Amino acid sequence: MLFMLDRWYAAPLKEKLERPFVHLMFGARQTGKSTLLNALLPPEALRIDLADPQGRARYLAQPGEFIQVCRALPANRLGQFVFVDEVQTVPALFDAVQHLYDSDKERWRFVLCGSSARKLRRTGTNLLPGRSFLHRLHPLTLAEHPPPQPRALYAPSPLELPWTGGESPAQPFPAWELETRLAYGALPGIVTSEESDRPELLRAFAIVHLEEEIRREALVRDWGAFLRFLPLAASESGQILNYAAISQETGISQPTVKAHYQLLEDLFMGFRVLAYTKSPRKNLLSTPRFFFFDLGVRHAAAGLTPSLEVVKANPGAFFEQWVGIELWKRLQYLGDGRLHYQRTRNGAEVDFIIERGDTLTPVEVKWTAHPDRQDARHLINFLREHPQRALRSYIICRCPRPMEIHEQVIALPWSCL
After folding, report:
1. 119 pLDDT exceeds 70?
2. Where does the pLDDT of residue 210 fall: very low under 50, low under 70, confident under 90, or very high at 90 and above?
């Protein structure tokens, strides 16, 4: 097994890989998908990297060769692992995998990894329903990338993400202060790199990697128009979607702007937070908010140099985005629940609402180190409007210790999230 720092998803993934199904893993580039899979898969696994142009061209021209290569592998009573990276570049391999899997469900364990769902969705690619497990890997969570100060063990969290077995990671990623997280994000390669290298690495991700992905798959017709769209979309990260404003500023039609946002989602570079409208209030906004999946990438895509100086210009907004991204990642891993926000037309807002089953947990994000009752007023109103479903709420802030602001409102240090 290759050495790697601990990932939260490693234990659930390892257990699932033992099951005789096809395994599909998706996620943005540089989230550590290949590193994690190579660490968990046995050395004798067949590894096919379609990021290699020569190998990709070979299978694009003759996808049937994949079947021949797999059939030539020695039989293994536990199943011979076949790992295909960047599988979205040769969609025909999904049909080849189905053919092999249906012919013998025990002989092979296929693991297919990709960084884009765009081509697969547009071509109607067979994603092996009834035969596959779907996995997603995200940038680091707070559990994997801990704060410098120990978490208060008695502090409740609005959304726990416990390690399997309750154990803390033996090899966590380096501990960072809050401002560093807001400046550089949480991609594993960025967190483990030298600080002086991080801005250039993030710029390369935002432009070079994105351009390569888009050009290779011919995902947009006009690369120049997309480059006008990207910095504006990044600058608006965390805000309510406004297609008309971006269309007017870039000179791109609204349908194209919508398609570009969908492209960012297909590349796993962004996500939407839907408005929560199941409320007695009548003047609620219903338009979703859009977030980039990582703050470091967001800064670079916006044309900024990721740094602590960027954070100082608007720390509260970046802190709110960081909390939203963290909650979203946890919900994705837990596979249970949805993230919402609520805002009225006159500006009253609850930053985030965690919906899990019949329970609603409203969350406010404040840059302050001294939260008070005024900071909790929107939370208290939400609790009163939903007495059966919302029983407790949280203010995530920079206070040194957990504090009770109201009998149903707890202020938590960011490190206790």
Report:
1. no
2. confident
Q: 230 exposed, middle or buried (CB, 10 Å; 0-12, 13-18, 19+)?
A: buried
Cα(323)–Cα(141) distance, integer angstroms: 10
The conformation of residue 396, written as its DSSP 8-state character, comes to E
Q: Is residue 369 a contact partner of residue 400, using CB atoms and an 8 Å limit? A: yes
**pTM for this model (two decimals):** 0.94
Are 123 and 87 within 8 A, CB to CB?
no
Element (H, E) at 353: strand 349-356
Residue 217 dihedral angles phi and psi, to the nearest 5°:
-100, 5
Does any domain span residue 158? no
Residue 186 and residue 166 in contact, taking contact as beta carbons nearer than 8 Å? no
User: How distant, in Å, are the alpha carbons of 50, 52, 56, 140 from that of 86?
Assistant: 5, 9, 9, 21
**Residue 379 DSSP code:** H
Would you call 144 exposed, middle or buried from its count of C-beta atoms within 10 A (0-12, 13-18, 19+)? buried
Give the pLDDT confidence score for residue 116 in this predicted structure. Answer: 79
Note whether residue 144 is domain-resident. Answer: no
Same domain for 171 and 81? no
Tens of pLDDT, residue by residue over 16-75, are 999 989 999 999 999 999 999 999 999 999 999 998 989 899 999 999 999 999 999 988
Percent above pLDDT 70 for the chain = 95
Non-local (6+) Cβ contacts of 389 within 8 A are 358, 359, 360
Decide: residue 167, CB within 10 A, 0-12 exposed, 13-18 middle, 19+ buried. Answer: exposed
The mean pLDDT of the chain is 91
Give the structural domain span for 289.
164-416
- How many angstroms from the chain centroid is the CA of residue 132? 21
**Pick from 275, 240, 415, 265: which is nearest to 352 by CA?**
275
Do 390 and 262 share a structural domain? yes
How far, CA to CA in Å, does 160 sit from each of 27, 109, 137, 294?
22, 32, 18, 20
How many CA atoms, within 13 angstroms, populate the side-chain half-sphere of residue 364? 28
Are 180 and 113 in the same domain?
no
